[in-house]
Amino acid sequence: MRATPSTAALLSPLAALAALNLFLADVRDGLGPFLGVFLQEKAWSPAEIGLVMTLGGLVAMLATMPMGALVDASRAKRAIIVFGSVAILAASLTILAVPQFAAVAVAQAVNGIAAAALLPAIAGLTLGLVGPAGFDRQLGRNEAFNHAGNILAAVLAGVLGWWFGLPAVFALLGAMAVLGALSVLAIPADAIDHEAARGGGAAPAGTGKGRESKGRESIGRLLREPALVTAAITFGLFHLGNAAMLPLFGQAMVATAGADPSALTATTVVVAQGTMIPMALVAAWLGARRGYRLVLLLALAALPIRGVIAAAAVYHGAAWALIPVQVLDGVGAGLLGVATPGLVARILAGSGRFNLGLGFAMTAQGIGASLSTLLGGVVAQQVGYGAAFLVLGSVALLAAGAYVIGGCPGGTEPGRRDDAGTVAPATG
């Protein structure tokens, strides 16, 4: 009897990694925007919905650095991804079965912790598969498949939700989680260089296995790394200006231009995510050749332009401005999605703490995003939507200033770090 080929034999490691990013794009965010709609149908008040969704975000932010440290220390990165996907699926099914505040709050906390583990685990897995030399290019591919997965999930969720109701969205999430787990298990365990995966020493040529470094850089020293602190402040300020712009723009267009909320939301997702795919590839190409200075500055430049267009659209009631506003959203987020792990990997090359450092940067992003809605909401209420967009866009100027004052880290070659643990001088 002829043997059936195993899953691992059907996909190359990088093809399996691409499939993983495609399917987990939907899983990482859990129910995402559908959670609020589902809870609203269960007669939850807006305050209760906001509280429980905020809880998940806060737990995720607090868990990001510990999860990054776990990924650095663990050789079971595939298992972390599988367990994280299963945890998000189980939490989502709990919400479906028991839509009571206590149960949903616990489920959202579980979601937050699992989501905080998935991103560094995928980044570490990628670095362990391709090494520092191939990391920039692979980051672009990862992000391209991730954004394609977001578009696919949004379309399928919309169609299935229309035909079968919100429970179909839970079924879609389950299918994506299963396919994501199968994809990561298709990556052979011995294809992962775990020393490279945490930003340590590279494996000896031809061995297929990572060697252990003499020691990891202390956490305190790592968090005082000037280049990492500069990058984290820059990322945090970008998200302070960026995170609230889309929901505020949607509210403004519905209020001033009479736009249809459902059609508006669907269009924003497709336009932004579609733009992010080529931008991710461009960011990877630029990062590999010129470092991440230009990539990060281009991402920051897109934000004030977006704010000006959004403000003008509000003043003139121009719903057509949705397209350029969301294209620029795709430009900024698409570039930054690659620049964040790519820049952190260059700054912390040789430290053995890449995923912890990535968690530090993501925590800064989370703080910025959390404060963004507060900043935008207060300005919109006191002065108006147009002023809110101008204020949010101007935050990018602060981010650019912080980045320039901090020395513009990101121009070094992959893997370059001097003996003192600081970033080596730029080579080009």
From TrEMBL:
Gene3D superfamilies (UniProt xref): MFS general substrate transporter like domains
InterPro entries per record: MFS (IPR011701), MFS_dom (IPR020846), MFS_trans_sf (IPR036259)
Transmembrane segments: 49-71, 80-107, 113-135, 147-164, 170-189, 227-250, 262-287, 294-315, 321-344, 356-379, 385-406
Leader sequence segment: 1-18
GO molecular function terms listed in the Swiss-Prot or TrEMBL record: transmembrane transporter activity
Domain Major facilitator superfamily (MFS) profile: 7-411
Keyword terms: Membrane, Signal, Transmembrane, Transmembrane helix
Name assigned to this protein: Predicted arabinose efflux permease, MFS family
Organism (species): Ancylobacter rudongensis
